[in-house]
Amino acid sequence: MSFLRSLFICPCGSHRDLFVHCSFARAARTVICSSFVRSLFVHCSFIVRSLFVHCSFIVRLLFVFCSSFVRLSFVICSSFVRLSFVFSLSACRATTARVAHTCPCGSHRLSHKISYKPS
Hints:
The protein has about 120 residues and is an all-alpha fold. It has one domain (about 15-100). The protein contains two helices and no strands. The longest helix is centred in the middle third of the chain and has 89 residues, at about 15-100. The chain is rod-shaped and about 125 Å long. The relative contact order is 0.04.
């Protein structure tokens, strides 16, 4: 015979009270634990949700800031490169024209004046 079945068959009744107390303690423990687990899940899900909202907001702000910073950096760098190119080209043309006019052999002389108008 199993132990549980012997508790219900025992004529003295003391085992039955022990079974009732144990089953009540087990039920109370289950209720308390499930309530604790439920409240823990609610609090953790709230924390995770708020972290997700704040992190996504921060990531969105970083994306907006970084994209505007990258755009501004690109504009500044492209303007600098354009100005450097124009300056280098005009300096190169001026040097070429000066060398062509001062070359003693005369074969490099240009028949027309080199002029550059930056746009």
